[in-house]
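Sharing a chain and its predicted structure for anyone who wants a worked example. Both blocks are below, sequence first, tokens second.
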Amino acid sequence: MQRKILIAIAIVFGLLLLTAIVLPFALKGRIMERVQRELSERIDARVELGEFKISLIRHFPNVSLRLDDLRIIGYEPFEGDTLADVGRFYMSLNIRTLLRGDYEVSRVRLDDATFLFKLLEDGRANWNIFTGFSSDVDEDTAQVYLTDEPIAEDPSDFIISLKQLEVRRSTVVYHDDKSVTYVDASDINGVFSGDLGMSMTTLATRNATVGELSLRWDVWPILSKAKVWLTAEMDADLDNFVFLFRDNELLVNELPLVFEGMVGWPVDDLEMDIRFGAARSDFAAFLSLLPALYTADFQDLESSGTLQLEGYMKGTMTADDWPGFGLTLGVNDGMFRYPGLPASVSGVNIAARITNPGPDLDLTVVDVSSFRMDLGGNPIDASFRLATPISDPQVDARIVGRVDLAQVGNFYPLDEGVVVSGLLESDLELRGRLSSIEAGDYGAFHADGHLVARDVSYHSPDLDQGFELAVADMRLSPQMMRVDAFESRFGASDLAATGQIDNIIGYLFDSQLLTGTFTTRSALLDLNQLMAEVPETDQPDEEPMGVIRIPANIDFTLNSTADQVVFGKMDIRNFNGRVRLAEERANMESLRMNLLGGLLEMSGYYDTSGELPAVDFGLVISGFGIRETFNTFNTARILAPIGEFARGDISMNLQLSTLLDKGLAPVLESLAGSGRLQSSAVTLSGTPTMNALADNLKINELREMSLRNLLMSFSFADGKLELPPLDLSFGDVSASLSGVTYFDQRISYDMNLEIPRALFGTQANQVLEGLVSQAAGLGVQFSPGEMVPVDVLIGGTFRRPELSVSLAALRGTIEDQLMQEANRLLQEAEDRLRQEAEQARQRVQDEVDEQVEDVRERVDQEVEARVEQVMAAAERQAENIRRTASNSAESVRKEAREQGARLEREAQGPIAQAAARRTAQALISQADLRAEQIEAEGERNAQRVIDEARQQVERIRRGEE
């Protein structure tokens, strides 16, 4: 009995195990179909789903779903933005509800997920993709308002009974252009628990972490890559969507914060009443928020002083209104000292408040009434107040300080090998409204002071050439920031400048256009050394260092001169010209410089307004060395690869436009332009094409070409450079050349040479005899004279050319012979057809005469019948004449075409074939003309028969016949 029971139990467990294995496969298609249908019906975005798996064993008795590589990608105006990119998504479903037809979700886990939330300035948000809501757009204000009108009529039967949400290694990015607020949180890990299936529940998380949190408001960084730890609970009224925070702790780096309050969406607007503050009055904890101080040895930092940090947000947030908010920061007698350093940063006293009663952001007041510190004996004293920041920024700011850079190492640990010295002094004051600057009422805005740097020197292992700033003297006024002196040196390079920056107040507080004019002077600018000394960073650049973007809100004019500029392989001397930076474009006006042994004059622009930079230049080049030009400019190697084998100097006018890739190399598909090149003497030696021709003809003298007074035009576009017919002469050889060089180095050229007979030696004569025999085989008798004409067709690539060589005389000789033969055949056909036409006419005439005789014998009885018969016979005979003439004409055409086709078939070689084609065309053309003449002559004869018949009929009717 026991054995039977054990067997029965084993069978039951076996069936359960089999069901656990088989059931997921049976349900997988059903669930996946439902998921896809729900996504397509509920989400207005492109959804990409990767591998899908289902298991009944992992969280039995629930069904465990796993989806890899889930992506949600937006449509316009967020085309290409990935709202969600989830590496792996887990979800647990209640198996009973699954079999019943509805779906109860109890647990969700996200691994390696990235969420990008964007709010545009006009109020459009990339997360408004759910079709359960519609949006209305105010045409006047371009504001977008969400409504709760359902678009999908059938409600979803997904039941959210979520009890746990777990997030691993995930990222959340929030970019709000409307409130100019930007949040980046990466490496998020945490478990969030609660029961979303209940009306009232407690939502909680324990030890949730953010690896790096950055927060920026407008251009002001508030947090930079801070580490965050969070433990929080909140009571949630899910029917009214109201959340009450309690027992919450937040640790930002080393600063502990507590917060409490309420957030809710009871109707349409967001209501909040939140208070937060620092849990400890520890100045060191506040210092941990400063990235420069929060380093590996932060725990050993000696510090003292008290901290006050608290804030609130209270009120209602709508599409246009903000709740009231405030932040208070106070530091009293703060001090910190790094271990092992003789001096400290002391006397840190900060009193700052940010207030706004709501609902208008323009009511915000930022008031830093006191900001003082002593940097190891270097005092800094500043204050700042900003009001009405939106409508008309009103600022009151000052900063007074003096820093001896040689003392920095006494209170801040410099990296090994870093040496810095020099003096920085500032005494700046700003006071007034931005509207005064905009109206040009500079007297109503107080701006005064100076910023001076003297004898500044900086050396480090990453900057072993060192940087020296002899003087930088800048003076501030309401109208401008004037640079009275600027003298610097970097390694062997030096740069001096004077000038002014206008509208700097409007630029700082309202992002207005910043204008300026500078004059720069340098004895040497070694740009290679400057770029080599820029230290590498761990952060990848969005674009390579080659792409320099011109800001849209500046308008600078630079008048520059330099005795020497070294850049790449170029050694530039006597550089001078004007560069205007405006509208994302650098306009270069009459730049002049000496390089590559000659003079370059350039005008044009470098435009960065598009996705890829674009250039459009006009260049005037005088006396450039060909070899140096080829080795220096990548574009020259693309357009004229022959430059590798050339010697001499050139002058050129060149117009060039192209897009540039991210490494500033030309995008070949966009490269276009034209030019004109001239040179008094150019030598070409060892070019692949001429070497191949010399090998073919056995004439070594062709391997080198010495060209005098060269003048050539060219154009390039659509991936190729076109060379119109160009006459050349080198030594006693003359040539004509035309064709195309493609940017991928393919070539296609025609060359016609006149080679002196004297250059044909023993081997060359054997080649010439072969060409003469080839001509004789085509029926052309050719006897070389003093000059031997040679045709060369050049194909293949520049490095591996493919040549077809023949005697140029073959073409004309074969054409003449074929034309003579065609004329003879045409004349024979014409004579034969003329004789046949005359015979036909005579036969018709004889027949008419016989009919007329018959009519005369029966004139009294059958006059009218005779008339009809005469006319009918005449018509028939006329038609016979026409038909005979038409047949004869068609025979002429047919015979000419057959003769032309026979000539083409019998022609041997490309030149003979080309000549045969032209002869055939001429033969056909003459035959067509002759056929038309035969047809016309037949028509005249037919009409003459009809006219004679009519005359005869008249005579018959008059009784004259």
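Comments welcome. The longest helix spans residues 809-857.
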